[in-house]
Amino acid sequence: MKFAILMLCLTIVHSSFLSNDIAKMKYYRSLIDHLHRENYAKGVLIISNVDYNCFDEMTYWHETSRKMSNRGIATDIVNFKVLKQNLPFYTNQIRHILFVIIIQNMDEVNLFAEINFNSNWSESPWVILFSGNNNQDVCEFCREPHRNVFNLKFNSDIVVVCCNSTDINEWWSATGDYTQVRKLAQWIDEKRGVEWLPKKSLYERRTSLEGRPLRIGIVKRSTDIWIDQGDFNGYLGKVLKALSQLMNFTISTVISEHSYGTWDPELSEWTGALGRLQRNEVDMVVSSFIMTADRFRVADFTIPTVYENSRLYFKKPGVTTVQWNAYFKAFSTDVWLVIIALILIVPLLLTIIQSTERLCFFPLVFEHYLSVWGIYCQQGLPELPEKTPLRIVYTSAFLSALIITMAYSASLTSFLAVSLSPLPFKTMDEFAKLGTYELIAIIDSADYVWLKLFCRSTVENKWKN
């Protein structure tokens, strides 16, 4: 009897534990599902050192993975060791995936901090779930994170759930020294799920850099920003000063570079201002940069502020030539076709009208062709035919010839009166193949790199052909 009562109590307690865990797993699934949709992630990677002896927890996460996979969401589960080995693959080869990190103790906090410190994947969306079922240290760390152990940045997209708390927070770091926490949402119940606070974008929620000193890089001789008597000038200089007030940061250092920067294949690094930014020698470069695919891989750009086209200027040639093809440009192709049709049809019409009087058809056609050709060349007829139908046709031909001649003379005069300078080239291919012009461009600018690569590829193709 006592044994039966004991078994009943254990069953009730165990059932209660499973019910709480099931509610927690539904909570996690709802949160992961929402963030996956919100971030338009292409997949979900669950990272956990779950003890495989803990059958219940392992089952829940595999069940979560299976359900998400059934809905077409690519999902995988790895431990921290596998993550450390394959992190370049997850961050470089698979773009924009949602990382779900499950942390149960402080050892895993330190392990994840080590992985994140030596990696550059803070721009990916994270979900950190501190379970800490029997570990109060990790729960205290989650509620009050000390320093910036996860190497968070201002734009880090991190959502954190602390142990059994229903609050959903976001973590980031404006200065890099400590972690900032803000409540983002709250779990209500299984039916209503997660209730999010008033929706704002990431940069609407984070507008202050907490007085952080920034190192600024500029390009010398730039027409958009320059320093005069210790103050920034130019329209980008005004923008920089307005941003420093709005975002609450200070300018500690200004580094000037002679060029915008380009990729050096021999040194395998970027030069100029972009090289400073890639090597983390400056925090921001303020100049008018043209956004290219290569630059976009190493730098974040603002939205375009100016839309311009690249232009190529060269000296106007001094020699002028007459447009001899203007004799044919006086009329369009359709008009020329109508004139030719009249010259061909009118003699045939005259021949048909007069063929009843003479039996020799071909000599008559030839005679009428000469007469019509003479009319359109402003030549008269030896005598006007006596038959009225022939007179009507000839008179119509004279009038059409007169109108065509007047229009042709006016159009031809306008074309011949304008002398044009001959262009040495009309396309970039012709410019590159010509090879007689010396081109001036701002060194290491986007136009400079594009022209250099274009001319090189054109010459190589020329030699190949």
From TrEMBL:
The chain crosses the membrane at residues 335-352, 396-418. GO terms for molecular function: ligand-gated monoatomic ion channel activity. The gene is GRIK2_2. SUPFAM superfamilies: Periplasmic binding protein-like II (SSF53850). InterPro entries: Glu/Gly-bd, Insect_Ionotropic_Sensory_Rcpt, Iontro_rcpt_C. Belongs to the glutamate-gated ion channel (TC 1.A.10.1) family. It is a multi-pass membrane protein. One of its GO terms (cellular component) is plasma membrane. It comes from Fopius arisanus. It is found in: Cell membrane. Residues 228-316 form the Ionotropic glutamate receptor L-glutamate and glycine-binding domain. Residues 1-15 form the signal peptide. One of its GO terms (biological process) is detection of stimulus involved in sensory perception. Residues 332-433 form the Ionotropic glutamate receptor C-terminal domain. This is GRIK2_2 protein. Keywords: Cell membrane, Glycoprotein, Ion channel, Ion transport, Ligand-gated ion channel, Membrane, Receptor, Signal, Transmembrane, Transmembrane helix, Transport.
